[in-house]
Fold this sequence. Notes:
This protein is an alpha+beta fold. The protein is built from five helices and 26 strands.
Amino acid sequence: MIAAALAISPCLITAPANAQARIRDVVDVQGVRDNDLVGYGIVVGLNGTGDTVRNSPFTEDSLTHMLERLGVNVQGEQIKPKNVAAVLVTASLPPFARNGSSIDVNIASIGDATSLEGGTLILTPLKAGDNEIYAVAQGTIIVSGIDVKAQGARETRGSPTTGSVPNGAKVEREVNYDFNRNQQISLALRSPDFTTAARIEDTINAAMGIPLASMRDPGTIELDLRGISESPARLLASIENLPVQVATPARIVIDEKSGTIVLGEDVTISRVAIAQGNIAIKVRETPVASQPNPFARGESIVLPRSEITITQTGSNNIAMLEPNVTLSQLIAGLNALGVSPQEMADIIRSMKAAGAIHADLVIR
């Protein structure tokens, strides 16, 4: 078995499989979720970076309608809104949000505006899937990108046509949901797993002293609230911080773009031999000039002469790994071979194809 120091930068090791987490960090309460909101609005105050009338005629129409609602008659006038841009506004309405609460909004240009920097979003209603208005947004836009132009040059970083307004929307309508009237609550695991679901069931029942929780499937745990004097909200507050051991699957994730390899703690391999041959082929040309004999008929020619040398660089290019090798031993063995991140990814894929590595392989 190879024994080498565990020191490798392109690989990351996940936390141990028996790491403890709070129940609230691994489950979601069914029925308690965000609601997506969307709206159409216009941004004003741009420094000549807004939409053009030719490519975005709807911007001119929107500006005309808005001015008419404000009592300004612009019928028949030609408007060239270089400082105005049409945008889509999106937001997420948190569960149990109340009237007057503030939420963040994201803004993206839908015309040919080149930048939203310095713009102000005008009052925009935000609707949900039921076409009802739940919030209104307005405020100064914060843009993370930058667009700098000079004579004969232009530099763009990020996306200056998108931005956000922190706390830029006010909730105007609440989602009617009486949580305390529930007689049964379902906890949905974010990563369904039989072992983790069983442990959550045992943890809740042990803490409450009664068979309150029951596992329906690897992704759902039912809480029977009949006969419980506490309110559902109070009950969840008492169990959501209970620690539970989360079972993580044996998994290897390879990101080929960045060369990152993430391996789970439970990754093991069977007995296998690994050969990582660094073959160097050197070709050296030494041409020779051939001259004819004095006073002989002929001409000088150049004769090619090539020397080919094949060598194998490095040492310890083959290694034997014993059965049930742990993660640290696997990485130490690959380190001992002196492989690069790309070569390590190729070796892991080959081991998986050979059936010698026992883990799920995810390649991105």
